[in-house]
Input
Amino acid sequence: MLGLFRVLEGAEIKGVVAPYKNTRQFVTIDTISLNWGQLVGSIPSKANLVVRMVAPADPANPAQRPLIMAGVDKLAIDLDLGAAWTESSGAFALAPATLDLGNLAKAQARFGLANVPRSLFTTDPVQAMGQAAQVETGTFELSLRDSGVVDLVVAQFARMQDVSRDAARGAIVAMIRAQGEKITGANGDVKMAVDALAGFVETSGQTLTVKLTPRAKVPLMQLMQLSQSDPEGALAQFRIEASTGL
Output
């Protein structure tokens, strides 16, 4: 299967309309495009995925029922995801990474890794795990634009608690701040992030921006272990910047 990467440079589906499950609704695929390159052996070190499609909300999926109850019967998906490794610097970057969910939200993210060795691109899982110990975490940036998802969450919470939407919004903000106090401690950066998230929920139509920058070298494997055993300690490895704006 990996040999296909050597003879093909990508795959694409365009202009497809297909029935959705056993319903009378349709999935409309404008484009699904996957391209790859910069092979290291038989493994691509560069790839880009583009997806533009419209799919109906599925009433049989519990996660999508709130959408249907809110009158959202279709999901417009616009995804652009790119990833590339640079051998000279050993840097791996996930950018761009953009997901637009039509009238719900738009997210943009950038994530980097440092000290990624060439020998990590292997089909040998034992060798890959051994080389992964060298990889260091880079900067992570996230931008989330609210186009209706906050009001959707508030409406669902109000329905579940049988309260007004204003009361539901206030309760969600209070829960965010209460949970934030448990992990903030003396870390002022975390408090800033919690305040920004609370403000994002308080006023609809805003953009939440978060940036995490390593304070020093942070091995990726060590961070993953720390995030499970000591989330506060994991956050302390980063300088956190967070803000909201219209």
Notes: The longest strand covers residues 26-40.
